[in-house]
Amino acid sequence: QVQLVESGGGLVQAGGSLRLSCAISGNIFRLNGLRWDRQAPGKQRELVASIDRFGITNYADSVKGRFTISRDNAKNAGYLQMNSLKPEDTAEYYCNVDGYIGILAVNSWGQGTQVTVSS
Predict the structure, then answer these.
(1) Which of 11, 25, 45, 57 could form a disulfide with 39 if both were Cys (CB 3.0 to 4.6 A apart)?
(2) Terminal Cα distance for the chain, rounded
(3) What does the alpha-carbon distance between residue 51 and residue 99 come to, in Å, rounded to a whole number?
């Protein structure tokens, strides 16, 4: 129904920046909320940032002031700008969206994109 494709991950040195993108397929999908989670090896998946349909954002304490989440409703896309990256930001990053196709509520996860920050 709805497919997400994350991109923008890679290897970066500490202090560097990356911009993750989440492309949402399905032009009849009406985007409601969007979030980015991450999972490091041996750790639980955690919320990094979220943005609701009003544009209200929420961030994990560990990324506040460094990461910025945004969305483009016209393009059905989401982004995560990551600055001042630290080795502890190394993880697989996942995009999640919720919204509607008609009156059908939809919630979908992407396959993830790897972010590796070297010290």
Answers:
(1) 45
(2) 40
(3) 13
Q: How far is CA 45 from CA 1, 55, 79, 94, in A?
A: 24, 23, 19, 9
Taking only the tens place, the pLDDT of each residue in 63-113 is: 999 999 999 988 889 999 999 999 999 999 999 999 998 899 999 999 999
Secondary structure string (H, E, C) spanning the chain: CCCEEEECCEEEECCCCEEEEEEECCCCEEEEEEEEEEECCCCCCEEEEEECCCCCEEECCCCCCCEEEEEECCCCEEEEEECCCCHHHCEEEEEEEEEEECCEEEEEECCCEEEEEEC
